[in-house]
Design the sequence.
């Protein structure tokens, strides 16, 4: 196919403009070139049935090692710098948040004689698994992946968070009275965070009991029961359990007593055996 002089001139002008644009962008690209953090190659090799296989990045599999943490942090910082430099990022984030900000409820299914379904407020990273005895009855949280600890309310979680010995191990230099006093004043962020986690563990245990046996009266006892903030505990439970207006529960703080502690331990052991 032959081209006339005008068409050749037009193509030449377009080509020259394209090359000029690329040439002008070249310094910009070089200036904004990403400097990825170095990932050192190890010398580890494995022998699989006589075949030597190199595994130079095995060190990255140790997620808690200082080297891996430093590398991941450097990668995250590089990514954050790149994303923050995008002019349209704030507008896109706002628009996507608006589109996703609505309550979502999954299709219910039945297992083990209970109805299960997922729900999401629209701003939760993961949907929460709810369960109920029958449609329209009180729903409780079965599994909340957004929690920092398992929401099942098992005795193991109570012991590891609320247990007197667990508190001693967490705060070797402080008495329980000092921990909760510091949490109220806000002078020690670590104590404040622990007080919240402590109440949420108790709320999760209450939610688990409501899930298994229904609402009612809950007695709280033990050496640290005097530190319970009932108003805050109620708010935590209400986040985990959805009850109809006809159903309710109530807390009662019972003074610590050795005989009562033995009875409570026996009841817990019986429940665990069942």
Sequence:
């Amino acid at each position: 196919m032959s081209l006339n002089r005008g068409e050749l001139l037009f193509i030449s002008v377009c080509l020259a403009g394209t090359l000029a644009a690329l040439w002008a962008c070249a310094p910009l690209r070089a200036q904004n070139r990403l400097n990825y953090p170095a990932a050192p190659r190890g010398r580890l090799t494995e022998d699989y049935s006589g075949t030597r296989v190199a595994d130079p990045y095995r060190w990255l599999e140790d997620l808690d090692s200082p080297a891996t943490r430093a590398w991941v942090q450097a990668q995250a910082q590089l990514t954050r710098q790149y994303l923050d430099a995008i002019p349209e990022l704030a507008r896109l984030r706002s628009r996507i948040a608006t589109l996703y900000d609505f309550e979502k409820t999954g299709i219910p299914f039945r297992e083990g004689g209970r109805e299960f379904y997922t729900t999401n407020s629209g701003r939760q990273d993961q949907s929460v698994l709810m369960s109920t005895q029958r449609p329209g009855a009180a729903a409780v949280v079965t599994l909340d992946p957004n929690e920092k600890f398992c929401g099942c309310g098992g005795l193991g979680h109570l012991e590891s968070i609320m247990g007197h010995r667990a508190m001693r191990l967490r705060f070797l230099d402080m008495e329980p009275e000092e921990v909760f006093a510091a949490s109220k004043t806000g002078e020690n962020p670590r104590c404040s965070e622990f007080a919240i986690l402590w109440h949420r563990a108790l709320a999760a245990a209450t939610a688990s009991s409501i899930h298994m046996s229904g609402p009612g009266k809950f007695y709280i006892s033990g050496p640290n029961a005097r530190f319970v903030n009932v108003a805050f505990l109620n708010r935590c439970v209400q986040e985990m359990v959805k009850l109809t207006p006809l159903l309710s529960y109530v807390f009662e703080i019972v003074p610590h007593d050795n005989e009562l502690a033995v009875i409570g331990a026996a009841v817990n052991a019986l429940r665990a055996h069942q």
